[in-house]
Amino acid sequence: MNVYKWYAASRWLYLHHVPILPGIIKTGIRIIWGGVIPYQADIGKGTILGYQACGIVIHKRCVIGTGCHISQGVTIGGTSGLYEVPVLGENVQVGANAVIIGPVHVGSGSVIGAGAVVTRDIPPRSVAVGVPAKVVKTLEENETASI
């Protein structure tokens, strides 16, 4: 069974106020796959957590749209002293070991390169790379890019 299905089960249990089990599943994900995928996070259907979420860390208040691809080693989280956390639109692709932190929005259809550090908003259909991440290309309506 893939890790997203375990997350989805724990999320369903959490939303239906079933005690204890969501936390057990979250701990199991951490032990078995080495990822921190909290049941409180809102992760859209069809999202792929690369290499079974190996090394992926997601903040519990993050919102990730449908159809995203989050590669191994990615961190999506907050920063000290700020309540807001990242929001990813639909069909966002995030390369291995990228970091998305703080109150940022990554627009739908965007691609974040491997190892990028995102600390500012990324417009929809953009390709962002580097440290700090900068938009290097805007994708046309019929154009696609992948990690």
From TrEMBL:
<dbReference type="InterPro" id="IPR005881">
    <property type="entry name" value="Ser_O-AcTrfase"/>
</dbReference>
<keyword id="KW-0012">Acyltransferase</keyword>
<dbReference type="GO" id="GO:0005737">
    <property type="term" value="C:cytoplasm"/>
</dbReference>
<dbReference type="InterPro" id="IPR045304">
    <property type="entry name" value="LbH_SAT"/>
</dbReference>
<dbReference type="GO" id="GO:0006535">
    <property type="term" value="P:cysteine biosynthetic process from serine"/>
</dbReference>
<keyword id="KW-0808">Transferase</keyword>
<comment type="similarity">
    <text>Belongs to the transferase hexapeptide repeat family.</text>
</comment>
<dbReference type="InterPro" id="IPR001451">
    <property type="entry name" value="Hexapep"/>
</dbReference>
<dbReference type="InterPro" id="IPR011004">
    <property type="entry name" value="Trimer_LpxA-like_sf"/>
</dbReference>
<dbReference type="GO" id="GO:0009001">
    <property type="term" value="F:serine O-acetyltransferase activity"/>
</dbReference>
<dbReference type="Pfam" id="PF00132">
    <property type="entry name" value="Hexapep"/>
</dbReference>
<protein>
    <recommendedName>
        <fullName>Serine acetyltransferase</fullName>
    </recommendedName>
</protein>
<dbReference type="InterPro" id="IPR018357">
    <property type="entry name" value="Hexapep_transf_CS"/>
</dbReference>
<keyword id="KW-0677">Repeat</keyword>
